[in-house]
Sequence to fold (122 residues):
Amino acid sequence: MLDGESVLVEGKDCCVTESMEVPITKFIPLASRLIGKLVKDPNREKISKGGIILGTDIEDPYVECQIIAVGRGTITHSGLVPNECKVGDMALLFNGKKYMLKDGGEDYIIFNEADIVATYKQ
Fold:
């Protein structure tokens, strides 16, 4: 990330400083958190059933991503419960206010495993 590049963190725009110039691959999610690379489908057009092209402010109710990093799991009284998802899995989660990051022109998301609706293998 370049100094001064705009990123979205918890739904708010902020400016990346020199201390944030760490590649996304160096981030290690904690506990039940995961890091996913957002999947953009160029073939999916924003067109209503009536044929009207929708504006960019209309968002899908879900987000699709490829999991690139997995935390250790949730710590309970009985011990560590590892995350079910693995690196490389594809995940579908509800589009909400998550931690969004940009790195090298790619969009990434940090989220809890509980936010996932479904997973599939590519």
Remarks:
- The two ends are 28 Å apart (CA to CA).
